[in-house]
Amino acid sequence: MADPTPADPTPEAETKAETETGAADIDAAEVEAAEAVGAAPEEVAAAPAPVRPRRRGLIAVLVLVGILVVLGVAAVIAENVARAQAQSLIAQEVRQALRLEADHPVDVAIEGGPMLLQAAGGGLERVVIEVPELAVGELRGDLTLIVEGTPLDTTQPTESLQAVFRVPEADVAALAGFFAGAVASDVRLDDREIRFETGFDIFGVPFSLGVGLTPTVEEGQLAFTPSSIVLGDQRLDAADLRAQFGGIVDPLLTSQRFCVAQYLPQALELTAVQVGDEQLVVVFHAADSALGGPEFSTLGTCS
To answer: In terms of Cα–Cα distance, which of 260, 265, 281, 291 is closest to 160?
Structure first.
């Protein structure tokens, strides 16, 4: 009996054999690679394929934020430097205009938006200047300058300027002798009047008289006009007082003027005065005047 002839392999069997052979070859390659790097074959087979990090967008954002921070800090520094320089320049101009010592305190506040933006427009919107302990003749008080529309060039006129001079009650007493033409005491501010007491003798008989003065502005000067008179317990008018004491009381009953123009820049025009809460408030205005111009560098005169 003859041996059976082996059947020829089918196409499916050939394909399967080739696949197994290829897989064996791949496994062998992996083993060789693992042995080359000193790793176990299973570690190489399990290692995932490397993934390229996607951080470019995050880095770009961080760089942009860093640039913005640097620009913001630079802008703040530039604003502070420019503001300090402008304040120093304005304070210097004010000291020169008011004939102040170099170390006299002058506080300058630049109001409105960022100064650099204001400067880009050609000037400053509003500047408030405080000058404490300013002497104006016999008076001493605090001066506030409010300047609107200040050009960067201080030789150019401002849009408007108002000056408010506040004299405390204690310093108003410095004018007591000027008010009475004699020795005065107990000077106080009350009911919109400046009140003081003065004494005088008639034929050796002493009398004490209380006088109330109302401050006004007359021909560019401070005027103090008697508005109330008290003798003992009696309140008298000027005619009654003259009838009793004659012309000796005339200096107490006439309006007295006090010129402040000679102590201040000629640009400042006296416009108002009133008795406030324990202080005498004197108001000045200046129109079309430059802080660094001749109107502020020259003192006024008294006619």
So the answer is: 291
| Number of independent structural domains in the chain | 2
Q: What gap in Å lies between CA 105 and CA 91, rounded to an integer?
A: 9
Query: Whole-angstrom Cα distance, residue 163 to residue 295?
Result: 15
Distance CA 221, CA 82 (A): 40
Q: Which burial class, exposed, middle or buried, applies to 196 when counting CB atoms under 10 A from its CB (0-12, 13-18, 19+)?
A: buried
Q: Which residues are CB-neighbours of 27 under 8 A, at least 6 positions away? A: 41
Query: Could you tell me if 44 and 35 are in contact, meaning their C-beta atoms sit under 8 angstroms apart?
Result: no
Q: Residue 23 pLDDT more than 80?
A: no
Q: pLDDT per residue over 197-218, tens digit each?
A: 877 666 777 777 788 888 999 9
Q: What are the pLDDT digits (tens) for 230-252?
A: 877 778 777 777 777 777 777 77
Q: Is 272 helix (H, G, I), strand (E, B) or coil?
A: strand
Together in a domain, 160 and 174 = no
SS3 label, residue 97 = helix
26 lies in some domain? no
Range of the domain at 188: 170-263+271-275
Q: How far apart, in whole angstroms, are the C-alpha atoms of residue 251 and residue 229?
A: 13
- Mark whether 176 and 238 lie in a shared domain: yes
User: Is 283 a domain residue?
Assistant: no
Please provide residue 132's backbone torsions phi and psi, each rounded to the nearest 5 degrees.
Answer: -80, 155
pTM above 0.85, yes or no: no
pLDDT beyond 90 at 270: yes
Give the span between the Cα atoms of 12 and 92, in whole angstroms.
Answer: 105
For residue 123, report the phi and psi dihedrals to the nearest 5 degrees: -175, 180
121, 224, 262 from 166: Cα distances, Å: 34, 17, 18
The one-letter amino acid at 149: G
